[in-house]
User: What shape does this take?
Amino acid sequence: MNVMKFGGAVLRSREGFSQMVDILRNQSSVPLLVIISAFSTSTRDLERAARAAENGDQDLAFSICDGIIREHHRFADELLAIKTTKDALNFFLDECETRLHQLLRGISITHELTPRTLDIILSFGEMLALHTVRHFLEESGFDLTFVDSSNIIVTNAVHGAATPDSSLTALNVERVLRPAFGRSSIVLTQGFVAKSSTGEITTMGKESSNLTATLLGELLNADEIIIWSDVEGIYTADPKLIPNAQPIPQMNYQQARRAAASGLKLIYSTMIEPSERANIPLVFRSAFAPAGNFTRIAANTDSWLPLFAIREVSPTVSEISVLNGSGWLVLDALRQYDVGRWKDLPFSISINPEECRFSLPTGTRTEEIVKFLHEVVVAQRHEI
Assistant: This one.
């Protein structure tokens, strides 16, 4: 069994949906759990609508909400050819719009937005995406079973950042999820959304669709967990910033945790632990280049390539991290090369054999420093 997660970076156009179909067809001999996350900016827009309602601006809240629904209607019109399928999806979308209006109207009247109500509103992003994908895949000829993740994953009641209860979730996996594979070889569910032990909708925090994938992968004892996005795995630096950044074919769980803590956007710390506990490889691939580069995170592997990451520590301070045993190489680079042009920068530096971290004012030639160090350190690593 494999677990695959498809997110908004893939499912933003007809091409992305077509790539998903090709990927799933190539995996037809293996049972698949497919995790779907919200499209585009849906989650962020749903929160904007909720905040507008909290401020008493019902018209703006409705406008934002209606824009989200229109986008999903557009997907229905572009992707679906069979009238009955399209009508069924459009009817579901209209029902969701009505329910969201009811919630937003109540918030705008009371000027009160509780974490519990916000979770309910945010959960619609995944639900809208999930049913759009479900109808598309069924029309594309797939025999699949749909299971709502809120009937599987049990969490505590910390709305907005709920923590899964593995033991209670394991019971639901055996009771609800595993039997679904007896009905079809592809089971579809959504990420991000769960329920507390008292039955209230919860969400598990930013990018927790990946956590959904690794948690359920662990409990299903999957062979592999694949995160499909629009980039070919993890690179030595952001390819948009460093055009000659090199792909990192593999890394271990410890390196992945360091990368997540340093701000690498593909990896979030919460998603690593379930994969590591069960010793299941976690693979990052591009849906638009399935045969291209990828990164495999697993035990007993290592990366000799440096990894550069930038994160915002505060509104005024950024941190540049250079990982994977490159600390002394960075120090050597600073000694040998033209560091004089940075001597006026108010930055601090921390170096050990495994990593180097710079803290400096946000926007202060950060990209220039990363480009310089990347060129020097990658060259030196190749010389070793």
